[in-house]
Amino acid sequence: MNAPTELRLRRQSKLLEVAFSDTERYQLPFEFLRVHSPSAEVKGHGPGQETLVLGKQTVDVVAIEPVGQYAIRLSFDDGHDTGLYSWKYLRELGQSQHLLWQRYLARVAAATR
User: What would the pLDDT profile of 80-90 be if each residue is shown by its tens digit?
Assistant: First the structure.
C-alpha cells in the first residue's frame, strides 16, 4: 500500500487531512478516528468483540508518530495511543467515512435508549 503524499493535523478544526494522490484526499475528524481506532481496546480480538466508544466529541490528537513505512500512531488527549493506523486502514476510513459514521451513530442511539 502506498504511503500518503500528505498528512496534516488541523488542530483548530480537529481534523487529520490525508492525501494519497491528487484525487484521493480525506478529512478525518479526530472523534471519528478515536472511535474507529484499530486498537484491540476498540476492535477487540475478534468479530463481535468491538467496544462502543462514547463521549469523544471533544477529543484532541496530541501527537502523530510514524511507525515504519506502513502506519502512524495517533496519541489522543484521553490517553489512548495504542492504535496503529496503517496506510490501508486510513484509506478505508476515508473511502467509507460516511457509512462508518452512520453505523456508529446508529450504535450510539441503540445503546443510549
Answer: 999 999 999 99
CB atoms within 10 A of CB 36: 24
Angle subtended by helix axes 87-95 and 97-111, to nearest 10: 80
Rounded to whole angstroms, the Cα distance separating 63 from 76 reads 7
17 CB neighbour count, 10 Å cutoff: 15
Backbone angles phi, psi at 14, to 5 degrees: 55, 55
Question: Domains in the chain, ordered, with CATH?
Answer: 6-111 (3.30.2020.30)
CA–CA separation, 83 and 71 (whole Å): 10
pTM for the model stands at 0.94
Q: What is the per-residue pLDDT across 11-69, written as a single tens digit (0 to 9) for each?
A: 999 999 999 987 899 999 999 999 999 998 888 877 778 899 999 999 999 999 999 99
